[in-house]
Amino acid sequence: MQLYKREQISQAVAIDQDALAAVEAGFAALGRGEVVQPPILSMAIEEANGEVDVKTAHIRGNERFAIKVSPGFFDNPKLGLPSLNGLMMVFSARTGLVDAVLFDEGYLTMVRTALAGAIAAKHLSRENSRRVAVLGAGEQAVKQVEALRLVRDITAIDVWARRSEAAEEYATRMRAAGLEVTVHDSVREACRAADIIVTTTPSQTPILEAADLPEGVHVTAMGSDSPDKRELAESVLTRADAFVCDTRPQSESNGELKALAGREVPFKVHELGAVIARGERLRLSDATITVCDLTGTGVQDTAIAGFALTRLSAEDSAR
């Protein structure tokens, strides 16, 4: 058994085309029905303002599977500690023995989350998309754009965040990456000229309305990943010409389909893996509005963990 720490892992795995292909292949396998993926195990630790999620999946035919443990303790910054942490345990799918422990401290989750947004845009946004509106200014606001640039020639960002200081800091960072960035005081202004909108907040109430959507836009909503979070108003879901999620059960429990809880969903729900596996073209014209709700899946974790271990093992062999 091998133990790898974050520094080693981050040197071996980046947001690049190879990692994107690995995660996309995991989604496609899910869409073909080749994945065993149990529901998320989630536990609240209320007295410490914490939660722990456990995700896993087995892709049939793969030599390994991963189990990820992802704690979030949201008072940690007051103690000088990070809010998010975690590790991935990688097992042999033939013997069940532990092949490796990836003590990545949440790094691989960050990578696969960013790549999922890029994969959604690859299959759902206009190919000539250049301008992205980013709602939020945290880590994923940066990484989602980095990943998007693997699949679209993004040149400009419009950013909105609840804290104007955070938006300005974000703008400075993204300008240093060679992008044109405009900071806005309202969501509507930020989205007015967008080809792609990415929501990256922990909001518990909707921040994006149907009236904010320009013609032909693609929306990737990745902030709502628990029962108490929501970023999209119900009007966004019903306005979309195509609604896609990573898995419908998770979207209904943790994602944006919670808005319709207890009611019949008045539109077809597509799953991203099936869209990829079947080569479905949901964008029928440049005016089509698409929405993708990403809650984070175990198959992404198994895909990125397997990819990481292959890279790390190759580096070990080369030494």
From TrEMBL:
List, alphabetically, the SUPFAM superfamilies matched. NAD(P)-binding Rossmann-fold domains
Task: Give the NCBIfam families listed for this entry.
Answer: PRK08291.1
Q: Which Pfam families match?
A: OCD_Mu_crystall
The name on file for this protein is Cyclodeaminase
Q: Which InterPro entries match?
A: NAD(P)-bd_dom_sf, ODC_Mu_crystall, ODC_N
The superkingdom listed in its UniProt entry is Bacteria
Source organism per entry reads Halomonas litopenaei
Gene3D superfamilies, alphabetized: NAD(P)-binding Rossmann-like Domain (3.40.50.720), ornithine cyclodeaminase, domain 1 (3.30.1780.10)
